[in-house]
Design brief:
By secondary structure, this protein is α+β, with helices and mostly antiparallel strands. It has four domains: 99 residues, Rossmann fold; 69 residues, Dna Ligase, domain 1, CATH 3.30.1490.20; 237 residues, ATP-grasp fold, B domain (D-amino Acid Aminotransferase, Chain A, domain 1), CATH 3.30.470.20; 67 residues, OB fold (Dihydrolipoamide Acetyltransferase, E2P), CATH 2.40.50. Helix content is 26%, strand content 30%. It has 15 helices and 34 strands. The protein has an eight-stranded antiparallel β-sheet with strand order 13-12-9-10-11-14-21-19, with helices on both faces. Helix 4 packs antiparallel against helix 5. It is globular, with a radius of gyration of 24 Å. The chain starts with 7 loop residues before the first strand and ends with a strand.
Length: 578
Amino acid sequence: MAVSTPRILIANRGEIAVRVIRTCRELGIPTVAVYSDADRQALHVDMADDAYRLGSASPAESYLNVPRIMEAAARSGATAVHPGYGFLAENAEFAAAVGQAGLTFIGPSPQAMSMLGDKMAARRAAHEAGAPITPGTLGPISASDAASEAERVGFPLLVKAAFGGGGKGMRLVNHADELEDAVTRAAREARAYFGRPEVFLERYIATAHHVEAQIIADDHGNVVFFGERDCSLQRRNQKLVEESPSPVVDADLRVRIGEAATAIARQAAYRNAGTVEFLLADDGSFYFMEVNARLQVEHPVTEMVTGFDLVRLQIRAAMGERVDVSPEIRGHAIECRLNAEDPAKDFLPGPGRVTRFEPPGGPFVRLDAGVSEGREVVGNYDSLIGKLVCWGEDRDAARRRTLRALDEMVIGGIPTTAAFHRWVLQTPEFVEGHHTTRFVEAALADGRFVPPSEPAPAADGSVRGDGSSPFHISVEVDGHHVPVLLWGVELPHPPPVPESAAGASSGDSASITAPMQGTILQVMVEPGQEVAEGQVVCILEAMKMENHIAAARDGMVKDVAVRKGDVVQSGAVLVSFE
């Protein structure tokens, strides 16, 4: 097909696909979406100018399927491919395949991606560029040789996926007896999410801020530093809230971080957008962690404080144009990741239909969402459904604006993390900027987060209130309008609530049921086996998270209703007892 103008295929889904489509529309560039069977009715499919099916819901058959994506690019007449983030965004073989097909890859070169996508090679490049690195292994390790390497690195340590990011394939290990299982699980998750199982060890710095530098480089020798972001509010290595600039970085430290980030980029002959991540210790020293050779989920906070559209600059750089700009940080921006998870139930994923969707408005408020009212949030992929981003003239103004926007926002039919964000933005640690990467998990363990209370079920089994979004009704008292705020929306027959963070069981403990839709990764028991309370009976994967399902009481297994690879629905019986 002859194409006279650029035509960009977005090899991704959800809110990042929508984000790229919007910039392309402003530039007058037609877009091509790709989708799995689970995403036939997705927002990004409707918004693109054209769309092509990849395959079944499995990522391996769809968004990780390079031949099918390249086939869609050829059929659609695409001239360029934007990988988004996650899936194939940091896959050098995919970037090379795009180039070999005569298309433009909107990202770094396969060579730079290979070096920096390999976290171990990136550590070596950072060292050669003069940036400080944390102690750890410089090559991949297996479960069998992990013990000897761990003794040298020291505990606590992290097992990290050598390819990929976003906290996937990462495990914290405090003691030697946890190491073998952590390496095995991290490698399995890394293979499932990134297609590569290699992992390495890195010393864990307990009290630190996660600070990252945004850079964009072009083919003309320009490497531009767009300031830093603070991503210290995390749970299980997953970022929850990001902000720019960091509350703990002063002007001098900002310069040093920028110099280190641009030096690493030059060392790797890097092109296009990338993020250089550092750990910032209490004493002001910082250590290189990794380079994310792609656009980051949290890139909007940088856009809000600099005024630059980073996707537009990505496209310009990929097309060979100069990116010769001088960003200046103005004000402060905060981003809250909106996940389809219930913070009242240990962040249990909750796919389903969005029955109500009312985004917030007002000055300097932005909502990047991959869903809209009436659409399904499917359980086959990551739980991120959108990002709320707010700007203010200073940090406290941005924080207050974010709280106001969270109060205005209404999302019904599915649980969201909005209630958690309302709480965390008002904690003294966040208000004062003293939070570290361990703050959220410690605060949750101490019971400091108290979710909104939920009403009791009605006689018909329905529930008003999912604890995540306000439900508005109005009454009139003596001619006076009185608004009433309830939490949640009407949900028929809610899924069973897990009895512990480790798993779930039915009310009478005679059986263990699935707390959510997902895929069985491993079955740990068999009929006739005696099990103890708290013992893991199977591992259920949902929305790319492994959930260890545990027994709620001692007993003998009567029947195992599932096997490895089975897809189960919420409430399905997994194991029954005598």
